[in-house]
Amino acid sequence: MKEHCPPEPFALYPPCTLPDWDTKASVRTDRSPYTLPADLEHQLGERHWFVPDFMPYLDHPDIVLAGPSVVRRLEANQLVYFLDYTTVLEHKLVNRSVETLIHDELGVPVPCAVKTAALQLYTDEGYHALFSNQIAEQVAELYGIDNRSRPARRIRRLLERIQACSPADEAMVWFLIGFVSETIIAKELLSAVRLPLVSTVLRMFKSHLADEARHSRYFCDVFSHLWPLFDDCQRTLAATQLLAILEIFFESDTDWLKESLASVGLHPDTLEYITTRLQQPHAHQQRVRSGAKVTLQALFNAGFFNIAHNRHLFQNAGYIDA
Ligand SMILES: [Fe+2]
Ligand SMILES: [Fe+2]
């Protein structure tokens, strides 16, 4: 790969690296297996399986009335769903995205340092998939959760997006999926580590967050670095695709959520009420605005919104202010 690297006019740009990866990456530093704690039953008296903030439906009167054991089961369902989603996302989407940098698929010069960091990030994501899967398997077995074969709606919709584009556009769409994913995940994990979760789950989320905070900075830097190098066609494509990808990342997975709610015996009317509320356009728009703050800031910093068309596109979607 070395001989294909361009000369380094990139000293002017942000470093786009993962500093101290050898001593900080969780794949290098984690030493204990992610096994559920021996005092799990005791922990579940006060600790959660998953983040209640990500489950706004938990305050529905029928669920509150059903009591803590139903709430814990719904949290377990959501945790397994999130971890299964993460496992696929890391392997099949984020790592596919960094391949576009490592193997010069974007048609613009990528410095060696950026490629090295991309290879490190690729390794990180493989490990995240491993520990996510290890915990998902244990919790799924504990509760007999068996509706895990269908990929999350977000994954299906993103893969459809790739299938729908021309071969010439694929690399850009892959890159943007990684950019969006890597700039929103740290905020999701940050919310998780502030709560009393089951100890093994909390330790795993902390490890993941430490890596993702570095990945988020890396992808923000890389986007800022590449944006001026893209030609007009690439920029137009990127604007349209970014809008669509952001929309997909904050959609709710109605079919899965109905299955989860039905697993604790909730009435079909309650299922309908909860899922309909989550699909309201305003609720979706607010999720994008709040969840993608880092992504939107990175676009702003890179000069993406200096193009009037891009600004209008995102204003019309309600993702940024007029
Ligand atoms: Fe990750
Ligand atoms: Fe990552």
UniProtKB/TrEMBL annotation:
Question: What is the protein's name according to its record?
Answer: Aminobenzoate oxygenase
- Write out the GO MF terms: oxidoreductase activity
InterPro entries in alphabetical order: AurF/CmlI, Ferritin-like_SF, RNR-like
